[in-house]
# Entry
Amino acid sequence: MNYCYLDWASTSPILDEVLSEFQRVSHEIIGNPSSLHRYGKEALEILSQSRLTAANALKVLPENLVFTSGGSEGNMLILSSLLMKRRRGSVIISGIEHPSVYEYGSILREAGFTPVYLTAPNGITKPESLSRQLREDTVMVTAMLVNNVTGSIQPIEEMAALTRSYAEKLGKPIHFHTDAVQALGKINFSLAKLGVDSASFSFHKIQGPKGAGLLYTTRPMKTLSSGGNQEFSVRSGTEALPSIAAAVTALNHTLENFSIIRTHASKLQSIIVEFINKRQDILALMPGFSPSANSPFITSFSCKGIPSEVLVRVMDDRGFAISAGSACSSKSRKKRERVLKNMMYDDSILSSAVRISVGPETTSDDVHAFCTALEQELTLLHKTLGKR
# Structure
């Protein structure tokens, strides 16, 4: 039986050219970028060139980029920087954030901050909701660019501008952070146009190596990380040079082929959407199927009356890897359903929601086969569960 991978939002298979670059740097570059001898200088050159290449790809300055282990660490570095501040206040957090952001709210609360969570009716965090929560003691706002469960695109540019305008009236800064992990290589965006103070990225979502990420930040910041002053003293520790070089290779490949990859994903999603629209027992969990509203790489839906875990296992037996939401929340039903709950869906929908996500290597035959198998299994499941 051929096995079809439809969980690209969780992680993606590494590209051959990316793996080759990882192996090349691992074998050829033996020095530590912080060492002063020739081997260290050679390693530093690779690190500096990788940062410059990434900066050119993202159209930002090299000094604004910090290499990390992934999106979760990037989010943590930004949020933990608040703990270094004397001034406590409110932190506004979108209710549909990745767990690495959402659950940090409890740490901030223990440290004396007041986390304020925003709902996202129909999958979108409304700027007017943010406006109502901004106050004199607000120190940070964090909202993701593309939701990892439904693929909904959030109005970050408008929210950041609103926050900046409010901060100017107060005469003190309010940091705006966005988790852009599911946006990189998936939607067209400009960090400069978004107007955010920081953004986190992860390369294993775009066929890069696991354990490699990037943090964009426009201003110097203090973090809880201390040590050898690597990465502008934001993240200490010897840089994982092979992963960094490989990650930048993946970044270049993805952005150079962005139009082709995105068009391909849109065609695949249209097949899924057509299937969903024909069935009364499936509800799409997306604010719309337009390019301005959703990432074409992620499609979430609820199969009425069929528990998510059951459908994931059944489809796995049929040879299709799908998920019941974010991989980081897959082992906790409560955490998994939290995003959709904040999108104002009722419990019956939450318990039967699944996500499929595609990538450049997914074919239309894969998606057609999935829809056929899903149709067959839903018929059997409704009969089986209906007899109970």
Notes: The chain has two domains: 4-12+258-386, 16-256. The mean pLDDT is 93. The radius of gyration is 22 Å. The domain at 4-12+258-386 is CATH 3.90.1150.10 (Aspartate Aminotransferase, domain 1).
